[in-house]
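Subgroup meeting minutes
Present: P.N., E.W., G.H.
Scribe: E.W.

1. P.N. recapped why we're keeping a running log of single-chain structure predictions: easier to compare across weeks, and new members can see raw inputs and outputs side by side.
2. G.H. added today's entry (351 aa).
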Amino acid sequence: MNGKQLDVIRLADDAMSVVILDQTKLPNHEEYLTLSEEKPMWDAIKLLQVRGAPAIGVFAGYAMAVLAKQETDLSYEAFKEAFDRQADYLNTSRPTAVNLSWALKRMKKFVEDHPEDPKTLADRLVQEAKTIDEENLAMNRKIAEYGVTLLHDGDGILTHCNAGYLACLGYGTATAPMYMAQEKGMHIHVYSDETRPLLQGARLTSFELYKAGVPVTSICDNMASLVMKQGKVQCVMVGCDRIAANGDFANKIGTSGVAILAKYYGIPFYTLGPSSTIDFNTPTGADIHIEMRDPEEIGSMWYKEPMILKEIDKFNPSFDVTDHSLLSGIVTERGIVYPPFDVNLKKLFNR
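Output recorded in log:
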């Protein structure tokens, strides 16, 4: 990738803590948190200090490795009991992003499959967490390679929320083709929705694209229809936190509306994410649990004084579900999946 990329997640040299970029402080302050205890780790996920489904998965792997390093004086049975409890606790922080539970299950299974001295096991868990990180980086590059084939020189691309390297590491997911297009010398222009309620598109996507030298214009969420009507957008690319077996998917609130607009204007609409985001245990989008967040995120969080009276009820879901009928395709590290999704997603996994 060209341009500057910040260090988002890293394991301390002694593997006794995990260091993360506090994304709630961007774009004005680049501050890092050093975490070694389960409650601050839970808070980091819940408060979106670390965020984005793939990045949360990588963080979960490192977090569990760090916690394991602190329990090496226990018997294997006691170690496993403590490890499972801590993993289950971290899993309660954010229920929608499947990568969190996926990574935690993988780490738990590793412990179950290796009933050995906890000191040795803890060191092996560090390596397993590093493997999750490396696999994620490789997957994002493959997503970039597949996704860039959908773009053309001169394209305008609209994206919603943040699914770049800050959320996914490496090339990111939704932004991966944009970075790859830049490397190939293609001329593109990105329109980044501000994305309520936490403004990840404004604070993070436009920030990281600008840092990388990708031309970007930040727009308010309710401007998407206009830029589409004006012919400035030839493709929409967004991330995903969970993809149901039929192709319905959850992403940051507002994505469904963007998809409806794209359908109306005849603009291809893609979601991009690693295959670990596909959840065959979730039949349809109706089965995806939608996380509700603090109402004051839309009432007063971004203002010197509240913009909505505290006495007024506020509705603040973090995600919505986009119906598979609005999707042109799903881009994964295994390839691009086209309709019918309920059939072709299974083919992707030889199911």
